[in-house]
């Protein structure tokens, strides 16, 4: 593992197509950095701030972005595979289309995020904040959403099969034509006070 870069600030840097490999950044700030088509494998960003950073078509595998802040970033066609984003916050970011496969996104804050049509599969998202988020038409399958904040979220036409929906109050979300499996239907019916016999 390379020596970590700590408390550095990067501004207006062109890292287009850069291979970040397994680089390690701690409490660093990135402003107006172009990471379009960049790749990372095992990289670590801990407590970093990203402002107006372009992650367009970037690919990240087994990397960590823990306790990071993403402000006004563009993640168009970005892919995160097996990544850890525990405790990170997204604000005013362009997150579509985004692909997340595996990994741990617990305690991530995505309030009000536009996540229409995104693809999130087999991810741990415990206590994620999706308050007011728009997941219309999204694929959210096999996801651990236990204790998630889903109030006022839009789940219309979303595929939620295989996900933990124990935190879902169907009376406070938009849910028309959302797809669930039979097991989830039982959980939701019980949450509404029905007795299954």
Describe the structure.
With 197 residues, the protein is mainly beta. It folds into two domains: 94 residues, Pectate Lyase C-like; 95 residues, E3 ubiquitin-protein ligase SopA (Pectate Lyase C-like), CATH 2.160.20. It contains one helix and 16 strands. The protein has a seven-stranded parallel beta sheet, with no helix packed on it. Strands 2-5-8-11-13 form a five-stranded parallel beta sheet, with no helix packed on it. The chain has a four-stranded parallel beta sheet with strand order 1-4-7-10, with no helix packed on it. The relative contact order is 0.09. Pfam families: Pentapeptide.
Order of helices and strands: EEEEEEEEEEEEEEEEH
CATH topology of the largest domain: Pectate Lyase C-like
What's the β-strand tally? 16
Major sheet description: 7 strands, parallel
CATH architecture of the largest domain: 3 Solenoid
The structural domain count equals 2
Helix content: under 10%
- Describe the strand arrangement of the main beta sheet, using strand numbers: 3-6-9-12-14-15-16
Rg (CA only): 17 Å
Number of DSSP helices? 1
- Mean pLDDT, to the nearest integer, reads 96
List the helices and strands and how they pair.
Blueprint: E1 5-6, E2 9-11, E3 19-21, E4 24-26, E5 29-31, E6 39-41, E7 44-46, E8 49-51, E9 59-61, E10 64-66, E11 69-71, E12 79-81, E13 89-91, E14 99-101, E15 119-121, E16 139-141, H1 182-191
Parallel strand pairs: 1-4, 2-5, 3-6, 4-7, 5-8, 6-9, 7-10, 8-11, 9-12, 11-13, 12-14, 14-15, 15-16
């Amino acid at each position: 593992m390379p020596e970590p870069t700590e408390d550095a600030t990067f501004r207006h840097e062109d890292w287009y197509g850069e291979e970040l490999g397994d680089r390690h950044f701690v409490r660093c700030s990135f402003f107006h950095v172009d990471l379009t088509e960049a790749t990372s494998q095992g990289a670590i960003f801990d407590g970093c701030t990203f402002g107006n950073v372009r992650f367009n078509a970037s690919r990240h595998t087994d990397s960590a972005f823990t306790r990071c802040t993403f402000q006004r970033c563009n993640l168009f066609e970005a892919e995160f595979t097996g990544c850890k984003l525990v405790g990170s916050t997204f604000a005013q970011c362009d997150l579509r289309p985004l692909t997340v496969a595996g990994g741990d996104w617990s305690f991530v804050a995505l309030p009000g995020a536009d996540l229409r049509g995104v693809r999130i599969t087999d991810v741990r998202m415990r206590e994620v904040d999706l308050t007011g988020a728009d997941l219309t038409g999204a694929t959210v399958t096999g996801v651990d959403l236990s204790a998630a904040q889903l109030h006022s979220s839009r789940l219309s036409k979303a595929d939620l099969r295989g996900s933990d929906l124990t935190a879902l109050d169907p009376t406070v979300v938009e849910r028309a034509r959302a797809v669930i499996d039979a097991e989830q239907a039982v959980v939701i019916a019980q949450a509404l006070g029905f007795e299954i016999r």
